[in-house]
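Re: weekly structure request thread

Next one in the queue (267 aa):
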Amino acid sequence: MDVGLIVALLLMGAFGGFAAGLLGIGGGMVLVPFITMIFTARGIAPELTIHMAIATSLATILFTSLSSVRAHHKHGAVLWPVVKLLAPGILIGSWIGPWIGKQMDSSFLAAFFGVFVAFSATQMLVGKKPAASRALPGKPGMFAAGGFIGTLSGIVGAGGGFISVPFMTWCGVRIHNAVATSAALGFPIALSGTISNIWFGWGEPGLPEYALGFIYVPALAIIVLASVIMAPLGARTAHRMPVRRLQKVFAVILYALAAYMFWKAFQ
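Done, posted below.
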């Protein structure tokens, strides 16, 4: 692996880790398009590029979530009872998500991801938070919500914050608590999704050397190194300053990344 590629992966990991800690988005929205670019340049089979980018991105959240949630926990912001209620559905959904993604054609998956990123960017740019119109549902409702969050996160390789944060704020949870709790939910999403991507990708024809199922281990190791360092910094920043301006900057970047994924889908 050449020095230029290592530097690119380190920078990408640092940016994704900071975004994960700051905004509770898991970093996947940023990482997947960049990893796709790198895997394409490395000559990985086109029909595997998107699937491997999503799987590798999801695996990084195993580490960034632990790093960022530790910082949030120090501030007493993580609502662990909420994590406990959502986690069972999340574990099941995150296992199913990669299987659904495997059934999708790579072009369709790229377009699906582009729509997801564009929607998330619009949500971030508008900055309109859902009104707290109800309380958190009971156990069946939380299980169903967790299943939906986990499934969609498993398909697109993200940490679930794009759904879990609005869901919790709609149910009356303070935004800082919602972001912190979303960071904690990233771990069960990544754990189940990573195992699923290894299982369903095992023995897939055309996988490169050092791939573990759909996960490309060398890229994972380098991205994680930078992400784990930057995720706590993002989490601390979220508690020290208003993030509205930074959200707008991230939104513009996400639009550009969504455009790339659409181009990748229809090229």
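The mean pLDDT is 85. Residues 3-266 form one domain.
Next request, please.
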